[in-house]
């Protein structure tokens, strides 16, 4: 599952990394690029709960075989893009297929690990995404420089095909092959067998996950454009430096997962969770001042911090939700969180793209820093009556 999330982020971030070159080659604006990102995000939003339910019902082996085959084909299809319509179609298919990533990760953790180790298991499985964002510039840049940006998408397709062959062999393991069932040893706090949309806790989880993780989408999809347009960096220079921000995300998963286990009783202590959310809120504020830094080094370090903090927001929201709901719903729960995040990205990226077109970088960074504040306040408000 770590490799699944790693490959998924290499697939999606290849476009973000090579955006300056691709947009110039196929004659698209930053706003049109934002719409292509929105197409991916909307499909990803819809795919997450759909795949979550399918995995909960039909199991990991079949569900991941179908999903991964679909998004591998979608990744290769980027090599044939000639304009906006084709790019939107390719991103839509990729987004829907990749919607299985995190539901499958949480489903696997539930079926293979005891309760007391599951949050660390989530960190390991989810961390492939941040690691994929780290290695994409290092891996894809030399391929694109030698074979062009279309060659980079052929490479991502071959990587997906290799994983699929390995999965068909490895997934014969009994705990993966078996039909899903409610996990044994569920914690007492996870008393809700069903997820009800009338429950304010589910909305507080979705808002904390989506808004708290907003800087991830902003930095992933916007950093290369900012470094190119505002700071004058070349595609090669961007490629060799853009691993720095997502490294913060990778470290953040493990650091904040350990912190929650240590100081918030695996998410059961609501008081501990509230203090953690406030701390994360404060640590994320420097992102708003990034445009005032007129060199790439300090800007990359602030983005590093923002992604480190956002990783903590995702861990905190998952710890909170998995202590409330039954493990039999974990696939759908993971899909709901990732889907809510994707919806936010779909709505926000055209806005960020428009601000970049107008060179209003300060406004874009301020907005990216403000969204987690809104998520934290909403979570606090919806949980204010709980002890």
Structural commentary:
With 387 residues, the chain is mainly α. The protein has a single domain (2-382), classed as Growth Hormone, Chain: A. Helix content is 78%, strand content 0%. Helix 3 (60-77) packs across helix 6 and helix 12 packs antiparallel against helix 13 (296-322). It starts with a helix and ends in a 5-residue tail after the last helix.
Labels describing this entry:
mainly alpha; 387 residues; Growth Hormone, Chain: A; 78% helix
Q: Extract low-pLDDT stretches.
A: 182-191
For the record, the CATH class is Mainly Alpha
CATH topology: Growth Hormone, Chain: A
The class by helix and strand makeup works out as mainly alpha
Number of helices: 15
Terminal Cα span: 35 Å
At the fourth level of CATH, the homologous superfamily is: MFS general substrate transporter like domains
User: So what's the overall shape?
Assistant: globular
Order of SSEs, N→C?
HHHHHHHHHHHHHHH
Helical content band: over 70%
Radius of gyration: 20 Å
How many β-strand stretches? 0
Mean pLDDT: 86
The CATH architecture:
Up-down Bundle
The structural domain count equals: 1
């Amino acid at each position: 599952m770590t490799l699944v999330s790693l490959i998924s982020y290499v697939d999606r971030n290849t476009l973000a990394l090579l955006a300056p070159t691709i947009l110039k080659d196929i004659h698209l604006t930053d706003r049109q690029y934002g719409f292509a990102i929105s197409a991916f995000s909307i499909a990803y939003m819809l795919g997450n709960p759909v795949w979550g339910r399918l995995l909960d019902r039909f199991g990991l082996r079949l569900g991941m075989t179908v999903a991964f085959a679909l998004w591998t084909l979608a990744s290769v299809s980027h090599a044939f893009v000639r304009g906006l319509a084709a790019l939107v179609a390719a991103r839509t298919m990729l987004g829907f297929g990749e919607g299985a990533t995190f539901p499958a990760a949480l489903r696997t953790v539930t079926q293979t690990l005891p309760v007391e180790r599951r949050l660390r298991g989530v960190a390991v499985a989810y961390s492939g995404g941040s690691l994929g964002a780290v290695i994409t510039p290092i891996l894809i840049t030399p391929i694109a420089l030698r074979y062009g940006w279309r060659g980079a998408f052929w490479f991502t397709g071959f990587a997906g095909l290799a994983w699929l062959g390995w999965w068909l062999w490895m997934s014969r393991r009994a705990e993966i092959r078996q039909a899903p069932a409610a996990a044994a040893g569920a914690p007492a706090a996870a008393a809700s067998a069903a997820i009800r949309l009338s429950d304010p806790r589910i909305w507080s989880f979705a808002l904390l996950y989506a808004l708290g993780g907003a800087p991830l989408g902003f930095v992933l999809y916007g950093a290369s454009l900012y470094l190119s347009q505002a700071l004058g960096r070349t595609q090669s220079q961007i490629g060799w430096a853009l691993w720095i921000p997502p490294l913060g995300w990778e470290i953040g998963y493990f650091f904040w997962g350990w912190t929650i286990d240590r100081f918030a009783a695996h998410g059961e202590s609501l008081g501990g969770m509230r203090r953690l959310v406030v701390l994360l809120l404060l640590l994320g504020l420097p992102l708003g001042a990034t445009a005032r830094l007129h060199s790439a080094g300090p800007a990359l370090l602030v983005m590093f911090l923002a992604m480190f903090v956002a990783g903590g927001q995702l861990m905190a929201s998952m710890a909170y939700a998995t202590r409330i709901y039954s493990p039999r719903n974990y696939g759908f729960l993971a899909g709901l969180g990732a889907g809510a995040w994707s919806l936010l990205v779909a709505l926000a990226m055209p806005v960020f793209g428009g601000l970049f077109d107008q060179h209003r970088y300060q406004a874009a960074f301020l907005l990216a820093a403000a969204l987690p504040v809104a998520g934290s306040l909403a979570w606090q408000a919806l949980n204010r009556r709980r002890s």
